[in-house]
Description:
Blueprint: H1 6-41, H2 46-60, H3 64-77, H4 84-109, H5 113-121, H6 126-156, H7 168-179, H8 182-210
Helix pairs in contact: 1-2, 1-4, 1-7, 1-8, 2-4, 3-4, 4-6, 5-6, 6-8, 7-8
Amino acid sequence: MNSLSFTHLGYLVIAAQWTVLLSLMAFVGGAVLGLALALARVSKIALLRNAAAAYIQVLQGTPLLVLLFLSYFGMSIAGLNVPPLLAAALSLTLYTGAFLGEIWRGCIQSVTPTQWEAAECLGLSRFAQYFYVVLPQASRIAIPPTVGFMVQVVKNTSLASVIGFLELSRAGQIVNNSTFQPFTVYFIIALMYFALCYPLSLASRYFERKLNVGK
């Protein structure tokens, strides 16, 4: 049995960097997908609304673990050799997009109807209404819940260990198998997750107070 050393701690720090990278990939991809879904959900075209609603319902009702298995093992069965990082990023992007799409849909629809009517009276096109009037107001409302959801994205990256991606939780398993000190190892991992997530929680509360959301 090896004692916990600085080498082990360095290994965990490197794994934490991969966790951050995966979180950023998932959030950026999920943000693009989520915006498209949110706009489709409030579209005047029924087909787009129904398709976006169906996607959100299916993805929100599917465990992330299942999405990870489908992305990694499913593509392997189909003959595609997908690295664990890309499979995990794809799964988290699809998952994150579904939730952000619904969050942002609610924020867009929370903009008062008088704002839409005023934009129409000015003769603005549908795109201009969104770009100049609706989205700037909706984004102000969306910042606190969006930042708060980022905490869930960071924590959900731990599930990527099931497909062999070396993030923080997987690195903790490896270090624990080497040192046989589970309490110490996982306590350190908990502290590292806390260090990643707590600033986001503080930012969410700060923006909620700063923007006076809900008042």
